[in-house]
Amino acid sequence: MAITKVYPDATAALAGILRDGMTIMAGGFGLCGIPATLIEAIRASGVKGLTVVSNNAGIDGAGLGLLLETRQISKMISSYVGENKLFAEQYLAGELEIEFNPQGTLAERIRAGGAGIPAFYTATGAGTVIAEGKETKVFDGRTYVMERGLRADLSIIHAWKADPEGNLVFRKTARNFNPVMATAGEMVVAEVEELVEQGSFDPDAIHTPGIYVNRIVKLAHVEKRIEQRTVRKREAA
């Protein structure tokens, strides 16, 4: 019997993986490129005590905000969380632990984890609260902060297209954190908008090779929400 990476739905794709207290990386930037359907399946599973690595925590009522509503997240390793009121409330009440990272540092910590690099030095954050409790070293007269690479038990990512082997292509800015997180998870589950036949991709067009991807779920419906809609009045002709 041939082994397949393609699963019928998000619940099936996460079966046997989820457990209390695990670390999960979730791709996306704002609401762009987030694995929304996989997040909903995690919520339905009821797992708790999660550490989640993500640029942000979605917004109230969407994305990772759904897991904050159910108190399933105990710690966030993030960069920007200013769009989520519930996030702030839980943090200020001492219900949620936060490990803040400069955005570039977060991306590099994930990339380093995926590349097998345990730590690296960066000048970003030196002399600020970001550096408190961390090793520092001076190189060429400038102070650098040591940051640890990040890995996760599970990475959940959103891609535009996939083939049955798990080769992935992302669409424009929806790529964001998804490719690096695919390299840094012990298990990687991808939700995809389109599933194409094997051999459809030009090898040079593949963003994430299938060797990194364990399971795929083809989305029946994709809702692409806009985090903040900004418009201006139409100018007179």
Describe the protein.
- This is 3-oxoacid CoA-transferase subunit A.
- One of its GO terms (molecular function) is CoA-transferase activity.
- Belongs to the 3-oxoacid CoA-transferase subunit A family.
- Keywords: Transferase.
- The chain is an alpha/beta fold.
- It has a single domain (6-117, 150-217), classed as 3-Layer(aba) Sandwich (Glutaconate Coenzyme A-transferase), CATH 3.40.1080.
- The protein is built from six helices and twelve strands.
- The chain has helices spanning 10-14, 36-45, 65-69, 85-92, 103-115, 178-183; strands at 6-7, 23-26, 50-53, 73-78, 97-100, 119-122, 136-139, 142-148, 152-162, 168-169, 185-195, 215-218.
- Strands 1, 2, 3, 4, 5, 9, 10, 11 and 12 form a nine-stranded mixed β-sheet that branches. Strands 6-8-7 form a three-stranded antiparallel β-sheet.
- Strand 7 and strand 8 form a beta hairpin.
- The longest helix has 13 residues, at 103-115.
- It is globular, with a radius of gyration of 19 Å.
- The N and C termini lie far apart (65 Å).
Provide a brief overview of the structure.
Helix content is 20%, strand content 27%. The protein is α/β, with parallel strands linked by helices and 237 residues long.
Encode the helix/strand succession as letters.
EHEHEHEHEHEEEEEHEE
| Count of folded domains | 1
- Please give the number of β-strands: 12
C-alpha Rg, in Å?
19 Å
